[in-house]
From TrEMBL:
CDD domains: M1_APN-Q_like. Residues 60-245 form the Aminopeptidase N-like N-terminal domain. This is Aminopeptidase puromycin sensitive. InterPro entries: Aminopeptidase_N-like_N, Aminopeptidase_N-like_N_sf, M1_APN-typ, Peptidase_M1, Peptidase_M1_aminopeptidases, Peptidase_M1_dom, Peptidase_M4/M1_CTD_sf. Its cofactor is Zn(2+). Keywords: Aminopeptidase, Hydrolase, Metal-binding, Metalloprotease, Protease, Zinc. Pfam families: Peptidase_M1, Peptidase_M1_N.
């Protein structure tokens, strides 16, 4: 694609400072881009498709998920045991599911016998599956068990394969994830809506010579009984969180490590042999976490934060809680050859994604209609963070050209849209990852901050994050 072929510094100038790219490039990037890449295009809003959100009669409390990816056949096996709450008696459970084949499913009410599902009705267009049961599931808690298989796809969404070349020249594949906005359902059956939060206990069965990562720290690693070449890696339970923030990576990586002044373990994972190129991002992350903790007056809630460079990655970066994924150009800095604009770019992207650990992950938008709450805010505070951590960059002088004018360019078009857009069907979500949600949203937040003043703005942020932590919020709440 054009961006990969261009020199990084040239690509950034074309993205942010140059004239709008040709229509072909708008088409190429309009659906797949996130973070800064959104500014390539603004898609016209098609006629809205009919859509209903998931019924509220059954909801998850905890997902216990075990996945076993096959890095040669590009498939994976999965076992899900979800602690669920039946709020209204029903004989079916409706979940999100896409490109997954369910083998067996059952529900066991607490203290009662297991009830096996008698049918799986896939609604492929709406990416849902209905599990039908021969008797009524009564109100109360129970355990939903599902065995399933899926594909490590080449679509760069869901649970997918990422090709890389080893230092010796051998082509291999990693298994990685990209779930925002609606692709967790491609990795496991789930209630894949931001407002349906739960905790996660994740296990990965992987080759013993591979690195396995997820949102939380490893709590156990033991040989897999069925194959001496595999190990089972178990991760600690997550906080209450949305499905789109879940992540796991299996591959070969080096890392550099430090601790923030608040005691959080910070690691940057790089391709093998390139650990030196992760040191600048490590410095940025170690400075950024304490800044946000002090600014929001809310501590970072996880014991670790990993930043990892992915070889094949459609987005610019993704703020998975505790395991932030990046394309290599947005994270790695060659200490000898990278220019100052590359360093500033990495600092901004790291600052943006770590801001989401609070504003988006700790407090999450109620529905995709409120996406600008996440992205507009992070696109503004990244500048505040970088200005604090690296005052020599004088980074605010770039806000006007990189964000404000870019937002105005797209806002002047007939197919512009309000910052907040009503979103229904999942197919509509990608259309609002654009410069209106990001850059115009950031410009409005910047005006608000300037009008209110920093002291009262910080107080308001603390009140908002404290009141809605581990919950969901809408624009009106902010």
């Amino acid at each position: 694609m054009w961006l990969a072929a261009a020199a990084p510094s040239l690509a950034r100038r074309l993205l942010f400072l140059g004239p709008p790219p040709p229509p072909l490039l708008l088409l190429v990037f309009s659906r797949s881009s996130r973070r800064r890449l959104h500014s390539l295009g603004l898609a016209a809003m098609p006629e809205k498709r009919p859509f209903e959100r998931l019924p509220a009669d059954v909801s998850p409390i905890n997902y216990s998920l075990c996945l076993k990816p096959d890095l040669l056949d590009f498939t994976f096996e999965g076992k899900l045991e979800a602690a669920a709450q039946v709020r209204q008696a029903t004989n079916q459970i409706v979940m999100n599911c896409a490109d997954i084949d369910i083998i067996t499913a059952s529900y066991a009410p607490e203290g009662d016998e297991e009830i096996h599902a008698t049918g799986f009705n896939y609604q492929n267009e709406d990416e849902k599956v209905t599990l039908s049961f021969p008797s009524t599931l009564q109100t109360g808690t129970g355990t939903l068990k599902i065995d399933f298989v899926g594909e490590l796809n080449d679509k760069m969404k869901g649970f997918y394969r990422s090709k890389y070349t080893t230092p010796s020249g051998e082509v291999r594949y990693a298994a990685v994830t990209q779930f925002e906005a609606t692709d967790a359902r491609r990795a496991f059956p789930c209630w894949d809506e931001p407002a349906i939060k739960a905790t996660f206990d994740i296990s990965l069965v992987v080759p013993k010579d591979r690195v396995a990562l997820s949102n939380m720290n490893v709590i156990d690693r033991k040989p897999y009984p069925d194959d001496e070449n595999l190990v089972e890696v178990k991760f600690a339970r997550t906080p209450v969180m949305s499905t789109y923030l879940v992540a796991f990576v299996v591959g070969e990586y080096d890392f550099v490590e430090t601790r923030s002044k608040d005691g959080v373990c910070v690691r940057v994972y790089t391709p093998v042999g390139k650990a030196e190129q992760g040191k600048f991002a490590l410095e940025v992350a170690a400075k950024t976490l304490p800044f946000y903790k002090d600014y929001f007056n809310v501590p970072y809630p996880l014991p670790k934060i990993d930043l990892i460079a992915i070889a094949d990655f459609a987005a610019g970066a993704m703020e998975n809680w505790g395991l932030v994924t990046y394309r290599e150009t947005a994270l790695l800095i060659d200490p000898k050859n990278s220019c100052s604009s590359s360093r500033q770019w990495v600092a901004l992207v790291v600052g943006h994604e770590l801001a989401h650990q609070w504003f988006g992950n700790l407090v999450t938008m109620e529905w995709w209609t409120h996406l600008w709450l996440n992205e507009g805010f992070a696109s503004w505070i990244e500048y505040l963070c970088v200005d604090h951590c690296f005052p020599e960059y004088d980074i605010w002088t770039q806000f006007v050209s990189a964000d404000y004018t870019r937002a105005q360019e797209l806002d002047a078009l007939d197919n512009s849209h309000p910052i907040e857009v009503s979103v229904g069907h999942p197919s509509e979500v990608d259309e609002i990852f654009d410069a209106i949600s990001y850059s115009k949203g950031a410009s409005v937040i910047r005006m608000l901050h300037d009008y209110i003043g920093d002291k009262d703005f910080k107080k308001g942020m603390n009140m908002y994050l404290t009141k809605f932590q581990q919950k969901n919020a809408a624009t009106g709440n902010l």
